[in-house]
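Researcher: Go.
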Amino acid sequence: MNQRKKYSAYILIIMIALLTTACGPRFYKNRFNIGTSYKKWIKEIGIFSSKNINVWGYEEDENLITLDIIYDNGLDGYKELCDIINAHNKFVEENPDYFPENIRINIINTAGSQQIISTFNNFPSGYPELDRAGSIKIQCMSMRMESDNSVELSAGDEIQFDVPVVCLIFDDMPANSEYSFLNSFSKAEQVIIYFSDAENYSRETACEDIRKYLPNVEIYEKAYNAEEKEYHLQKIQ
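Model: Structure:
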């Protein structure tokens, strides 16, 4: 390839990259091009009948569904995301044989900057340390605490997710106020904490801060077992 062709190819790559970032246009899925095998589910959880919900991405295979959502208009959009999660759980209760038994479902809450704020998923094969049965219902919300989650922090208890497990992922110790989004998860029964820097946190402080919002939850820590070369959960309170 001569220099001119190399230069042209390089410019083309840059243009494609710009078009696929937050600076470029967004192309959302709609009811006509989403390409789902689960049309009844898509209709009944209301992703295309909500005013502020945009489907940023959708993928599926026989074992996994990934639904990526960007919402608009702050708390109004967050409330609609909550309604979708709760509608999914209601749908599973009313249609227990609709999905394949071991399917995994991930619903991703993505900011307008395209940063992932939180993810919602089920436990199709259970989660042994938590002693929870496998389910197609959304059972866990995971949040990386340094995400752009200002709307989530201001939601209060008027927005209530029907989710029993919350997983918090930290790089540094947060201020107590950063836990305030837990007010929207008052039905939570178990909280998992994971610190990527094991030397830069206080387990006791984290538990105290969590219990200010969820006083009765069980708290587990995700830790790496060097001998087994796997992560496990250890109950700490």
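Model: Confidence is low (pLDDT under 50) at residues 3-8, 10-24.
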